[in-house]
Design goal:
2 domains; six-stranded mixed sheet; Purple Acid Phosphatase, chain A, domain 2
Amino acid sequence: MLKVKTMVLKVVTELLKRFLTCTFIILFCCEYLIYNIVIYQCSWPLLKQQGSFRNGEFIDKSQNVKALLLSDPHLLGSQHGHWFDKLRREWQMKKSFQTAMNYFQPEVVFILGDIFDEGMICDDEEWQQYVVRFHDIFYRTNDVQLFVVPGNHDIGFHYRMTGKSQLSKRFEKDFNVTGVNLLNLKGNVFVLLNSMALEQDGCALCEKAEQELKQVSSQLKCLHKDKLMFNFWRKQCVLAPFMSDPVLLQHFPLYRSSEVNCTGRDSPPLERRYIENREGWEVLSQSASELLMTSLQPRAIFGGHTHHSCQVLHQGNIPEFTLPSFSWRNRNDPSFLMATFNPNAYSVGRCFLPEENTVIFLYISLGFCSLFYIFWNSFRRKFYRSQLYRTRIFDHREPVKIC
Ligand SMILES: [Zn+2]
């Protein structure tokens, strides 16, 4: 009896050992290795123009800025979404972001809004927890700069933002942004905008943003002065003529009537493409878009909000990139952009993250292989030790009777 018990215990321990080993291997492959393998295949886009003059100044490699751009991570809050959903999506985003940071070491990261899913409805206590979680997921070393713009899920659409001004105040305080921010990185000029403050209805936040936009616009005029005029206006100018035209970063895309011109594997689904976009909801209003184009004259525009990818041209030669969501909750195939900027040129590339379907398929396949390995081995041993096996050997060895 004792012998049988010992035997059973031995078999159970063996099975448990195998089960734990297989579980560890599956988790390692599906939650760690796959991110490294997929993201490692991406690389920085190369600039076509290396070393050139801009308004009499030589622009070399030292003025290149490598930027990583992503949008709509939608960190889940306490009201919507299951705890497991939150745990899984945040792990996926953290792992992808940290892997990208390790491999590519960008100089700057831009997150284009809707950082939080419930930023516009959560209380101050939850907001603080949200901010801590954000910095944990999007952790970066001190040499990497991080800039964010607010999205409608962070501070509400225009009507909510103006009704509850504390929503935008706490965002501005914790992320150090205002309505319009001008940024100069090695001569590459960026303008960061609060899209919800561009309603042009005379609200306090809108008026403030319009004032800031005017100031930024007048600063940008310095970029187009010739050397003589620039020297004359030097005291008023924070930007110099050799610096780049601005890159516009905001949450909403500029106005477009629909998504019909968006194409590509992660563009909006066919049934969505033909639905008319509403001004101030899916896209910025026509008048605000025109105001931005005339006051800033950007060389490129980046936005998010729709959760799908899109690339359109404004005025025939100014590209606008709409970034898809970075969260697997919103897409099966999230991605981020890798862009190299220099005052004379820029280049943009896309890095896709592992597809969730692939991860699920990997879990199922490895799970079946593991079960086969665990139980087949024990069956095999049982079989070899069994009476049946011994009998067969004995039968086989029995001498053949000839007569
Ligand atoms: Zn949004």
